[in-house]
Amino acid sequence: MEFGRRLAAAVRLPHPRRERVELGDGAWAFPDPDVLVLRQREYGDWLMYRFTNSGEFCGDTWHRTIADADKQAAYEYGSTVGAWIEIPASEQDDVAYASRLAKESRLPGPANGSSQRGV
To answer: Where are the alpha helices (DSSP H) in 1-119?
Structure first.
């Protein structure tokens, strides 16, 4: 599947859970993410993926608009979500790119509780 725009944001939780937790009856809770990656699909809708810095998958959600995806990120992670940045088209692996920037503290962190995250 080809994607249009791709964006990334850091999540800076104070005490992130790093392991998968069994909830019972075959259900699991994913680890807390370090990065969010938004991918625009061919019809204009968006997928928001969550990953740890090591690339472990932490869940995904579908959104009709980029604003809806941003609202979901704010709902789930509050003021710990940083500004969204465009992922260059030259970057083949958007997750590795976002994780690398987050590890190097080059992916913007939260802006003092600001709700303006650049989408």
So the answer is: 66-77, 94-103
